[in-house]
Design brief:
With 357 residues, the protein is α/β, with parallel strands linked by helices. The chain is built from eleven helices and 14 strands. A seven-stranded mixed β-sheet has the order 2-8-7-6-5-3-4, with helices on both faces. Strands 10-14-13 form a three-stranded antiparallel β-sheet.
């Protein structure tokens, strides 16, 4: 069996440190002072055989579901892996979107699945097409995996497309994992968690990309009670439960989401305006508008973005994620969830590098 790998994550973890990082995709990290009561919450005692109960209950309250529909995990990536482990056997088929965030592919391969892809096309604005998904299903398909907002483009799925996909999945008796880690940060109106639309859906999410709390590693799934039980049992094999101090702080975060949302919204709205103005003035690039904190521009002439990303880092110490990690070499992924002043510097460096490239 081919060993599972996630080349983008390998690159992200081991690349040299930039002065301006537009390649990573977390929201600007919170400090202890951004989360009231954080210093007092660091009690290390507690148990969580089916997830730390106060945290499970806090997540359930946020989404208006019963606690037996919530499974906690180590971040959204952990939730995605546990879902694959719970629902997919070796030799089963998993259908994923393309372009795709490569840890999603690696998770499916790690449990022994055969993988293939359906297209989310630039020319269609990366829209989710249930007809294209249905045509790509195979007799052994057990799971479809997609993201909304889409990683790497930041495009949000239409609720109507998700409902149509639910009908496809229910008819075929398959499950659909929707990675919603950027959903809370999406601008404008947004669809509800996919798991609220159909029992065929599993929603995964975390406190990372939208809230600035990546270090807590608080992730979860929303699903039917039956699937949630299977995911919880998969976690028994992997890590049993999360560190209690992190879970306690995560409970505190849920109590203060309104305050954290004000912080995140101000940052994202300011940065989105900068991004929109930047792409409007760059003739070398074209980009589908993003609803999240990531964008996926491409060179109009189709050139490989790798040499550009290398030069940008070498000459300006600014990092973007080359498109090769998303099997889209003419593109690069740019994150704009960080500090606004650093984003200004990064965009100025990209402009200078484009003029010289």
């Amino acid at each position: 069996m081919t060993r599972a790998r996630a080349p983008y994550m390998e690159w992200a973890r081991h690349r040299p440190a930039p002065e301006v990082d537009l390649a990573g995709s977390n929201l600007l990290p919170c400090g202890l002072d951004d989360l009231p009561g954080a210093r007092e919450a660091l009690d290390i005692a507690g148990e969580s055989p089916d997830g730390y109960a106060p945290l499970v209950e806090a997540i359930a309250r946020r989404y208006g579901v019963a606690a037996d529909r919530v499974a906690t995990a180590g971040g959204c990536s952990g939730a995605n892996f546990l879902t694959c482990a719970a629902l997919v056997d070796a030799g089963d088929h998993v259908l994923l979107e393309h372009p795709v965030y490569d840890p999603l592919v690696a998770a499916a391969k790690m449990v022994g699945a055969e993988v293939s892809f359906f297209e989310r096309r630039f020319e269609d604005g990366y829209a989710l097409d249930p007809v294209r998904i249905a045509a790509a299903l195979k007799p052994k398909t057990r799971l479809v995996v997609l993201s909304s907002p889409h990683n790497p483009s930041g495009v949000l799925a239409e609720e109507s497309a998700l409902r149509n996909l639910a009908r496809v999945a229910e008819k075929a008796d398959i499950r659909v994992l929707v990675d919603e880690v950027y959903l809370d940060a999406a601008l404008g109106s947004k669809h509800p968690p996919a798991a609220a639309l159909s029992p065929a859906f599993i929603s995964s999410n975390s406190l990372t990309k939208s809230w600035g709390l990546a270090s807590l590693r608080c992730g979860w799934t929303l699903a039917s009670a039956e699937i949630t039980e299977r995911i919880r049992r998969a976690r028994d094999i992997v890590d049993v439960w999360a560190p209690i101090p992190a879970d306690r702080l995560s409970v505190l975060a849920f109590r203060n989401l309104d305050q954290l949302a004000v912080r995140a919204r101000a940052l994202i709205e300011a940065n989105s305006r900068l991004i929109g103005d930047f792409f409007a003035g760059r003739r070398e690039l074209e980009c589908v508008p993003s609803r999240s904190t990531i964008a996926f521009p491409r060179f109009r002439d189709g050139r490989d973005s790798g040499p550009f990303a290398d030069r940008l880092f070498r000459d300006h110490r600014v990092a973007v994620a080359p498109g090769r990690f998303f099997d889209s070499p003419a593109h690069f992924r740019l994150s704009f969830g960080g500090a606004t002043e650093k984003l200004r510097r990064g965009l100025a460096a990209i402009a200078a590098c484009l003029e010289a490239f």
